Amino acid sequence: MTLMTKFLGASAALALTAGAALADPALIYDLGGKFDKSFNEAAYTGAEAYAKETGGSYRDIELQSEAQREQALRRFAEAGFNPVVSTGFSMSTPIASVAADYPDTKFVTIDGFVSPDEHPNVLSILFAEHEGSYLVGMMAAMASKTGTVGFVGGMDVPLIRKFACGYAQGALAVNPDLKVISNMTGTTPAAWNDPVKGSELAKAQIAQGADVIYAAAGGTGLGVLQTAADEDILSIGVDSNQNHLYPGKVLTSMLKRVDVAVAETMAQGADLETGVMVLGLAENGVGYALDENNEALVTPEMKAAVDDAREKIVAGEIEVHDYSSDDSCPALSF
Amino acid sequence: MDKMPAWADAVLVPLISILLAAILSALVILAIGESPLDALNLMVEGALMRSSGWGYTLYYTTNFIFTGLCVAVAFHAKMFNIGGEGQAMIGGLGVALVCLFIPFPHWSIALLVATAAAAVFGALWALIPAYLQAKRGSHIVITTIMFNFIAAAVLNYVLVNVLRPQGAMDPATATFPAATHLPTFQEMFATADNPLFRGSPANVTFFLAVLACVGFWYLIWRTKLGYEIRAFGHSESAAKYAGISPVRITIVAMLISGGLAGMMALNTTMGEAERLVMNATEGAGFIGIAVALMGRSHPVGIFLAALLFGFLYQGGAELALWTNIPRELITVIQALVILFTGALDNMVRMPLERIFLATRRRNG
């Protein structure tokens, strides 16, 4: 409390921090930025939902550099924000090195993993993206007329390979003779925000015969979706529900409910239960989007098959291989 | 020809440039409905009024000193090395390899070996464009910037496929062994009742950067090689006539330049993250160009310019933390400073020169 008042005193003249009351939550976006129409934006949507529902306020920061990761965690913790929620797997190491210094603050890492035994005040939220991708892969295979489906990833990192691997498994489960083309946009963080390159990759895949393309590439995916719509083929969105971007052209979106995770952890406040949480199909943490924009595209057979697969995955009858478990993929080579 | 006094050239021109950039930034902040005075307050308070703020400012400064010196060496030989970014990435790879695979007994030995590795890796990455320039005439601007992308791809391949611990999501190496931990300012200066530099990343590499400044001055102005580099930079044909080999100077200058860029990775990789991450350089290679331009390729100027950019980076982080000024706008402010001090240098210099000459004529 004294630290808090001291801080507020120091910048009282600024009135910029007026919103900061004790135990407000804070949110740290990864380098992709707040409005990426995808992963980080889902976190923002969740935070806004929290603010609307509870009338509470929160503070957020868009990171600009690697060194700011630890800095943002420390400054928010010192200023009394609780919990401090962060998006992106890159936050796990900084959180692990900071958490012990602020035992009363709860830290949340979405997509990252911090050992709960070593750091009891950290909640790691992981999503079973391979399960959700499996379902949209099935839909892609059933919607494809050419027998070729595409995948455009963002930066070539294990997380995105996990998406691609689940997608390929789902597609091949429907039709073992299907061709799955996979491309990564790049090798630098710029690959998350390069719609032009996304568009080029989509065109290249269309030239190879792909007529359904799944984009798991943050802002880059917008270029993929647009090109797919222009070329009159289908695309699949990711993270947020992107069906509305090109109604009738986006087959579905692989939902990753980052928004729900953020809103719920924020609502629990300082009493947040820590540990490790894996949100898969069973927990509705991932899934596919069905709304008025794509209901004409999803046939009843498609829906029946996917819902059946969903139940089988939840029941453990179908096992979707997780790329990150052993860094290999049976259905796709990178 | 008459010239304006040296102090005006070295001090007055940059100061007016910064002032112009500040005024323009203030207008931009005003336009989005925030108070520029409060923003400045917040930046100064966050970057310079607390020791942990200084810890961050000096951390960024260390990066910019190395990359600034890197660009400056090439400038003296009239070459434009914009590949500092890639050279620093590969330098980081050198640091990571020695830190991970050599069991060091003490950090001081680790620092010495890692410094050598960073410099050698960075220098080798600069060697290829240097050779192409010297022997084939491929323009160094084109080749060095292309080598940045190749470096990013190489690093990504190595991190994702070779050095990444099994099952880890992050494209990064494992954490370095504890023996390679460099003392931070906190460990060096903080006492029990005076917790200075708490949690900030500034570390012993800063002193290495200062040493590099001194070494740079000695090399360029006190050695035969430095003389040859400067002579080559002033006039290639005159240098040739004096028996200086253009091929040798081009390659040697670029090796030194690449080595300095590589050494920047010590600070981010060994000093801060203690593992090699994909994004370790964060554009410091490009900021180095602005630092070298603003510092007139002189170590004192480079040190001060690096300090200014360190302040802008840390102050920018504070703005991002506590205001609603969007991240893009903070980049705009940083870019304005680069624009005025680097690109629009003559806009301030020429009128100033005329004023000085006019007053001198009147007095004379």
From TrEMBL, chain A:
Record InterPro entries: BMP_lipoprotein, Peripla_BP_I, PnrA-like
Q: For the ABC transporter substrate-binding protein PnrA-like domain, which residue ranges apply?
A: 35-322
Where does the secretion signal sit in this chain?
Answer: 1-23
Please name the Pfam families in this protein's record: Bmp (PF02608)
The membrane topology of this protein is: Lipid-anchor
Under the cellular component aspect of Gene Ontology, which terms does the record hold? plasma membrane
Name the predominant localization: membrane
| Compartment(s) | Cell membrane
Q: Which keywords does this Swiss-Prot/TrEMBL entry list? A: Cell membrane, Lipoprotein, Membrane, Signal
Q: Which family is annotated? A: Belongs to the BMP lipoprotein family.
Name used for this protein in its record:
Nucleoside-binding protein
Q: What is the lineage of its organism?
A: Bacteria, Pseudomonadati, Pseudomonadota, Alphaproteobacteria, Rhodobacterales
UniProtKB/TrEMBL annotation, chain B:
Q: What keyword terms does UniProt attach to this protein? A: Cell membrane, Membrane, Transmembrane, Transmembrane helix
Source organism, top-level taxon:
Bacteria
Statement: the UniProt record of this protein carries the keyword Membrane: yes
The residues that cross the membrane are 12-33, 53-75, 87-104, 110-128, 140-160, 204-221, 241-264, 276-295, 302-323, 329-348
Provide the topology term for how it sits in the membrane: Multi-pass membrane protein
Predominant localisation class: membrane
List where in the cell it is found. Answer: Cell membrane
Q: Which GO terms describe its cellular component?
A: plasma membrane
**Which InterPro entries does the record cross-reference, listed alphabetically?**
ABC_transp_permease
What is an example of a GO molecular function annotated in this UniProt entry?
transmembrane transporter activity
Please report the name of this protein according to its UniProt entry. Answer: Nucleoside ABC transporter membrane protein
